Amino acid sequence: MIRITREADYGIVLMTCLARVDGQPRSAATLAQQRHLPLPMVGKILKALARAGLLNSQRGAQGGYGLARPAAEISAADIIGALEGPLAITECSTDMHDGCSRQDHCEVSSHWPRINQAIYAALQSISLEEMSHPDPPRPLHFHPSQRTATAGIAGRPV
Amino acid sequence: MIRITREADYGIVLMTCLARVDGQPRSAATLAQQRHLPLPMVGKILKALARAGLLNSQRGAQGGYGLARPAAEISAADIIGALEGPLAITECSTDMHDGCSRQDHCEVSSHWPRINQAIYAALQSISLEEMSHPDPPRPLHFHPSQRTATAGIAGRPV
DNA sequence: CTAATCAGTACTGTATTAGTTCTATTTGTG
DNA sequence: CACAAATAGAACTAATACAGTACTGATTAG
Ligand code: FES
Ligand code: FES
After folding, report:
1. pLDDT 10s digits, A82-95
2. Does residue A29 approach strand D to less than 7 Å at its CB?
3. Model confidence over B119-145: pLDDT tens digits?
4. CA of B42 to the centre of ligand 1 (A)
5. What number does the ligand 2 atom closest to the CA of B90 have?
6. What global pTM score does this model have?
């Protein structure tokens, strides 16, 4: 099943925590305790998010992390991308792409980028602000294309 | 990075092959050779797709696999779902959900299903027919939501 | 009957992930 | 200044998941 890593999962959880206090910095230890997450993990994740420019960090006593921009301007894609590297749903669609020996005679290769973009857009369309409110207020900004049947034998969304 | 397994990757490749011959069955061996994929893998994947009802299988000599419905009515989501199980981007959002001990004090949990749905819709909107034509004719059926900035420091789509 | 082909399951080596640990650096406070 | 509180960064380990293989059994055309 398509999964994000737990790092990204935690990342979103932590970001929502920070979004709720709006700019005020919190230390890694505080957040770990609040969310009952392992402290070393939290540290690692916050460091990565800071490196990616999504968080401001303040070192030293009384230091901590705070959002670098308003929650409305941070998307799920930003957070996941920061923690998992550039979005690429198959190895075939990465930039380096040294691996796939089959590309020469592959008719699908040209379509992977589209699939990536579709997913990226989906994640981009969900803002941290929306996620940090307990109730999902708005419906999805998604326009699911008027295709025919596509009856879902396969995995329905949960 | 958000990745589908290679099984699903190959699955899409194989399905496009079958889509191009429109209904005519091909044997696993034939497809494996055509695409230079390891035969045992191909066998495994086609079996799974047949179990999921996306392919018809014919046993015995001269047997093989053919699409169970028109390519236009099969989506990327169907194929991926068949090979990877129900789409669930985090363990928190699976049905069983026995794992996540943090759910009680988790404000994000209610949003995971939305993220899942967004991705699911994105995958659903791409049909096998579109994928089996070498040239991407239509633009994305996606309406990327009028949000403000979300400047992409993080992973841009590739 | 026999060969071709799918069905199903169990196994293994490898790669990735989850999580820890340690050292260095920065900075507020007494 | 000395110290404590915090982040920065990298290296390491154990568990898990994936990719690929192997084998046995069932079905069917010729
Ligand atoms: S299988 Fe890699 S480019 Fe198509
Ligand atoms: S972290 Fe699992 S439900 Fe929120």
Report:
1. 998 776 666 665 55
2. yes
3. 888 889 999 999 887 665 445 444 433
4. 15
5. 2
6. 0.80
Domain ranges of chain A: 6-132
- For residue A27 and ligand 1, the question of a CB distance below 6 A is answered with no
- 3 state SS of A91: helix
The protein footprint on chain D, as nucleotides within 7 A of a CB, is 4-11, 18-23, 26-30
For residues B148 and B113, the model is more confident at B113
A16 HSE (CA, 13 A, CB side): 23
Long-range contacts (CB closer than 8 Å, 24 or more residues apart) made by A111-115: A111/B126, A111/B130, A111/B131, A111/B136, A113/B157, A113/B158, A114/B126, A114/B136, A114/B140, A115/A89, A115/B76, A115/B122, A115/B123, A115/B126
Query: Which of A16, A76, A157 has its CB closest to that of B117?
Result: A157
Q: CA A154 → C1' C2, Å? A: 38
CATH of B6-132, one of 3.30.200.20, 3.20.20.70, 1.10.1040.50, 1.10.10.10: 1.10.10.10
**Looking at the complex, does the CB of residue A19 fall below 8 Å from at least one CB of chain B?**
no
